[in-house]
């Protein structure tokens, strides 16, 4: 099976890394990308993909663009709803970013920039080198790896959590139901909208205590409707700024 530009889908990643000037890894002092290729590594990250998504669906989503590689990210043996897409050049990346929040089936897909290291880390994880985590530096080694806390667990918690990846049609009662069993302050549930009134897929939820917000992180990556929802610790100030932007 071949995608746009004649690249074979889901295989021969090593061949592509050797043949593409962006992906090639040199060992000598003169191993530089060719002239005109110094605009950054042409990769984007996708989030919110349907769980039955395949490589070919991503090629169709970016129809007309020249894709070099598609990497579907798995966690614990299951597709995570995320992927990395490498394009033939930086201009392709700029065009791909215009498809942020376009739909694939019933789900809108987030498209955003990421680093070369993020992509290489994910490739290494696919090969079994280490458990996948998004990092800006090489992964740590040693027997303590299995005991590492996630990046979210290391963050400082307030009473507020940010939700991302919500269905556009979500309402406050649905969010309160999502956190059933946790001490949500019902009057402090804020669904974020653009100035034109359209939902952004984000919300802020305040709990009675910071410890309760931390406990509610157990709902991270669980679903509302057909979409899995990501949770992040945040602050009242960020929630206020989001509310102010929606009123502009």
UniProtKB/TrEMBL annotation:
<dbReference type="GO" id="GO:0003723">
    <property type="term" value="F:RNA binding"/>
</dbReference>
<feature type="domain" description="RRM">
    <location>
        <begin position="159"/>
        <end position="236"/>
    </location>
</feature>
<dbReference type="InterPro" id="IPR050666">
    <property type="entry name" value="ESRP"/>
</dbReference>
<dbReference type="Pfam" id="PF00076">
    <property type="entry name" value="RRM_1"/>
</dbReference>
<dbReference type="InterPro" id="IPR000504">
    <property type="entry name" value="RRM_dom"/>
</dbReference>
<keyword id="KW-0677">Repeat</keyword>
<keyword id="KW-0694">RNA-binding</keyword>
<dbReference type="InterPro" id="IPR035979">
    <property type="entry name" value="RBD_domain_sf"/>
</dbReference>
<dbReference type="InterPro" id="IPR012677">
    <property type="entry name" value="Nucleotide-bd_a/b_plait_sf"/>
</dbReference>
<protein>
    <recommendedName>
        <fullName>RRM domain-containing protein</fullName>
    </recommendedName>
</protein>
């Amino acid at each position: 099976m071949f995608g746009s530009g004649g690249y074979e889908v889901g295989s021969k990643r090593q061949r592509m890394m050797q043949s593409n000037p962006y992906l090639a890894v040199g060992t000598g002092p003169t191993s530089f990308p060719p002239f005109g290729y110094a605009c950054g590594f042409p990769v984007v990250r996708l989030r919110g993909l349907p769980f039955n998504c395949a490589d070919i669906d991503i090629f169709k989503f970016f129809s007309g663009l020249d894709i070099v590689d598609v990497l579907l990210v798995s966690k614990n043996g299951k597709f995570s709803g995320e992927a990395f897409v490498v394009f033939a050049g930086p201009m392709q990346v700029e065009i791909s970013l215009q498809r942020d929040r376009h739909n694939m089936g019933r789900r809108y897909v987030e498209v955003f920039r990421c680093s070369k290291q993020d992509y290489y880390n994910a490739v290494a994880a696919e090969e079994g080198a280490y458990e996948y985590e998004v990092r800006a530096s090489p992964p740590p080694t040693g027997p303590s790896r299995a005991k590492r806390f996630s990046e979210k667990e290391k963050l400082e918690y307030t009473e507020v959590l940010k939700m991302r990846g919500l269905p556009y049609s979500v309402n406050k009662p649905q969010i309160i139901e999502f956190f059933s069993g946790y001490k949500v302050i019902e009057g402090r549930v804020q669904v974020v909208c653009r100035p034109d009134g359209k939902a952004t897929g984000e919300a802020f939820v305040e709990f009675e205590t910071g410890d309760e917000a931390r406990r509610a992180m157990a709902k991270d990556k669980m679903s509302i409707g057909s979409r899995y929802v990501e949770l992040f610790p945040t602050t009242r100030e960020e929630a206020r700024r989001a509310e102010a932007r929606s009123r502009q």
